[in-house]
Amino acid sequence: KQEVTQIPAALSVPEGENLVLNCSFTDSAIYNLQWFRQDPGKGLTSLLLIQSSQREQTSGRLNASLDKSSGRSTLYIAASQPGDSATYLCAVSSPGANSKLTFGKGITLSVRP
Amino acid sequence: DAGVTQSPTHLIKTRGQQVTLRCSPKSGHDTVSWYQQALGQGPQFIFQYYEEEERQRGNFPDRFSGHQFPNYSSELNVNALLLGDSALYLCASSLVLAGGPVQETQYFGPGTRLLVL
């Protein structure tokens, strides 16, 4: 059974800091991995999707990397801003699972002005 | 181009009642998945509908059922509500290529917040 872990549960940083959010998964046989953002009480916004054959994806100030063999992914946020404050969720899709996503519990990020 | 829409946005029910939640997928998408997100937790997969049939199911009791219509929209029904069913219910749509795993990102709706008293 695939399990996804995100530690720590919460993080507080000053504005302008570069930061890394970590995600680990137990079964390396994944089809793809996605990072989502969730604002309080809202739905999920997809940030980046990495196919299993890829090592990283970039979008603006965000960079996500994937190391399947070690079961890890990181989301790098450059020059953090107060508007980046949200919960960041990592989810994996496994082969044969027909796109079912297994999520971590998320990391709640607070960027202080 | 409308994204994924869900209705209602909020709902309050009492224990034992039944509820129906609705989802319209993003234009061009043919697959709808439902997730339950309890407070402080990650979303948990309930089930997925493709071609009007339940294709995969998570670890949820039979009180949770669904339907997909010919226009790809979907309903989630929960019978005999329990206090523990209080959660944010999320719908996600995607496009399955040739019946295989999803190649692209899934798009999530804003969710329906269900409170069971």
Protein model, in words:
The complex is a heterodimer of chains A (113) and B (117). Chain A is an all-beta fold. Chain A contains no helices and eleven strands. In chain A, strands 2, 4, 5, 9, 10 and 11 form a six-stranded mixed β-sheet that branches. Chain A is globular. In chain A, 40% of the residues are buried. Chain B has 117 residues and is mostly beta strands. The mean pLDDT of chain B is 91. At the A-B interface, strand 4, strand 5, strand 9 and strand 10 of A face strand 4, strand 5, strand 9 and strand 10 of B.
Please write out the topology.
The complex is a heterodimer of chains A (113) and B (117).
Chain A: E1 4-5, E2 10-14, E3 19-25, E4 32-38, E5 44-51, E6 56-59, E7 62-67, E8 72-77, E9 86-93, E10 101-103, E11 107-112
Parallel strand pairs in A: 2-11
Antiparallel strand pairs in A: 1-3, 3-8, 4-5, 4-9, 6-7, 7-8, 9-10, 9-11
Chain B: E1 5-7, E2 10-13, E3 19-24, E4 31-37, E5 44-50, E6 53-57, E7 64-68, E8 74-78, E9 87-94, E10 107-108, E11 112-116
Parallel strand pairs in B: 2-11
Antiparallel strand pairs in B: 1-3, 3-8, 4-5, 4-9, 5-6, 7-8, 9-10, 9-11
Order of helices and strands of chain A: EEEEEEEEEEE
Oligomer: heterodimer
Number of helices of chain A: 0
How confident overall, as mean pLDDT of chain A?
93
Kindly state the number of beta strands of chain B. Answer: 11
Termini of chain B, distance in Å? 37 Å
> What value does the Rg of chain A take, in angstroms?
13 Å
Content-based structural category of chain A:
mainly beta
Q: Count interface residues per chain for the largest interface.
A: A-B, 28 and 33 residues
Give me a quick take on this structure:
Chain A has 113 residues and is an all-beta fold.
Summarize this structure as a short list of keywords or feature phrases.
heterodimer, A: 113 residues, mainly beta, 11 strands, B: 117 residues, 7-stranded mixed β-sheet, 4-stranded antiparallel β-sheet
